[in-house]
Each structure stands twice: as structure tokens, then as C-alpha cells.
Amino acid sequence: MILVTGATGYIGSHTVVELISHGYEVLALDNLSTSRAAAIDAIESITGIRVPLEIIDLKDQASLLNIVGKYPIEGVIHIAGHLAVGESVEQPLKYYENNVNGLINLLRFMELSKCENLIFSSSCTVYGEVQQMPVKESLPTKRPNSPYGNTKKISEEIIEDLSAAGALKAICLRYFNPIGAHASGLLGENPDNVYNLLPLLLKAASGHLQELKVFGNDYPTKDGSCVRDYVHVLDIAAAHVKAFQRLNSISTKNTVEKFNLGSGKGYTVIEMIQAFEKINQIKIKYHVEARRDGDVAEIYSDSKLAFDKLNWTTKYTLDDMLSSAWNREKTFRKNELH
Ligand code: UD1
Predict the structure, then answer these.
(1) Considering the domain boundaries, does residue 140 fall inside one?
(2) Quick count: other Cβ atoms within 10 Å of Cβ 132?
């Protein structure tokens, strides 16, 4: 059985579906702080399987240790975490407490459960401000631009230390910008997310936000807005299964591997708006604002290592990402009215 933390969240729920479709048994864990237990119903509608859900906050070590031995856990996919760059600049302690303490408690749980396989949701933010694109895993990590980013960097280091002590095999998946949704429209990003570009763009498209803000048009990029590497959440979910299979095939304990998960292509914020408008035939109102604290000008991935070692590559296009995201938004808003 695989324990997935953050299982009712955006990436977690898509990953659970992918694990089930590969025949894995899953234990879902979440504190439901930014997601809903209804995701478990959606997963059941899609897969026909109802996964057990433990509603536990990873900061609460006692509750977590209470379930040691309750399930036969052979591996952990740790996705739970706070994710807003801007919020982390304003409330750093919230991020260190949740993302770092949460990981430490989970590692103690794994130790007591005699479970040594860990997949960790990391982020391209661990590279900090990068001069040369695309980014390869061989590039040393730097102090990220935000406390959020720093929690990911510190988490990778904690995992490395445990692995060096012979306690763990791990793979850190460094996501670039996951967007898009399952074709059913039943799973998707938290519509209350007021930090990331896509949820806000969707709100602007559905009329729940008057205007989208574009943070900065004076970066050294082709139209002055920031460049990011957007990758379909279904591709991200697939990478977790491949990573878990790889972890199982590795016998040495002192192993921590890191893989970039990106499409290899960078798009500016303005290009994203235009692509969304074109594929979905809908106009987005936006205006340019000042730069946002913590943002880097440009980042996109070299994902060759994931291709070579995980046999992973992206299957979905930008249009797939943007149309599936819009489909999800419409499904969500329709159900919300009833
Ligand atoms: C950052 C991390 C990423 C992490 C994510 C989690 C970096 C380089 N990336 O993504 O690894 O998974 O946080 O939250 O640190 N934007 C607007 N208007 C908006 C919202 C966003 O213009 O209303 C712009 C941002 O300035 C940015 C782009 O859209 O250039 C994407 O922003 P966002 O979706 O928040 O993700 P990142 O900050 O790139």
C-alpha cells in the first residue's frame, strides 16, 4: 500500500488516480486545509475504487504516529504542503512549520513503520535565480527567492541526510508549473487558490474575478512578463508512478535522486493568456501590475534525465492543459450552483 499525503489536493488526487490505474493500493492522507474530502468521491467515480482517507495534519506528530502499523505501507508519496510563494514571504513561519515540521514527522512515521521508500514533491524553485536555461539537475541548488522555496530546498537536504544514514531511498521530483485537469472535470486545482496563475485566469474567464493581474512587464523576456514551464498535472501524476517503480528497483539505501518535471518549453504570462483565449474562445480581461515579490524572471526545464532514467516524457500539449483546465472550471461552477 502506498501512502499519499496531500491526497485530496490537486496533484495528490490526480496521482492517486494514476496509482490506482496501475494497480496500486492507496492510503490517502490529508488535513483538508485547502482541499475537500469530496475528492475521494471523485476518485471513486473515475476509478471505481474507494480509497481510505486518514484526516491527519502532519504537524500533529502524535496523531500520525497513532496509525503506525494500521496499514501495510510500502512507500510514501509526500505531496502535502503549503505552496504560495507570495504568502510565504509574508508568513515564513507558517511555511517552515508546515512544510519542514510536517516532513520531519512523516520521516519519523516512516522510520517506525519500517518504510524506506519516499517520493518527495519538490520544486524548480530550489534552483533559485538561474542564468542559463534550460535548467538541469546537475546545477547546484541556491537559496531560493522565497521561504516557500527554501522549505523545498531544506526538505531535500533533510532527505539526503537520512538517506546518507542508511534510513531511506528517495526520489525528489522537482515540478515546474503543473496546470490542467483530469478530462472528467471532477478533479482540479483548488478554486479558492488566489496565488497561482491558472486558478486566477480561470476565475477571470468565468467572471469570478473582474480582471487578472499580470505581475510585471519589465522583465528581460520577449514581452516583459515572466516565463514559466507549464506541465500537465496528468503528466506529473504519471511521473510519480514511474518514480515509485524506479525506487522499488533500486536496492541500495543511500540513494536520493532528483528529477526535473517540465515540458522544456517556456511561455510568458501574456502568451498564456493569449493561448487560453484562442483554445477556449473566450476573452480574458487583464492589466499589468508591479512585479510580485519572490518571482524569478524566467525558468524552464531540461527534463532529459527523467526521460533517460524514468522513461518519462510529457504527453500533453499546452492546449490540452488550457482546455482541460477550462473544462474543470465549468464543471465546478455548474455543480456549485446546484
Ligand atoms: C512557484 C514555483 C513553483 C511552485 C509554485 C507553487 C518558482 C520559479 N516556481 O511557481 O515551483 O510549484 O510556485 O505555488 O518559484 N502571475 C501573474 N498573475 C497572477 C498570478 C501569477 O502574472 O495573478 C505570474 C507570476 O508572476 C509568474 C507566473 O504567473 O510569473 C506563474 O505564477 P504562479 O502560478 O504563482 O507560479 P510560480 O510562482 O511560477
Answers:
(1) yes
(2) 7
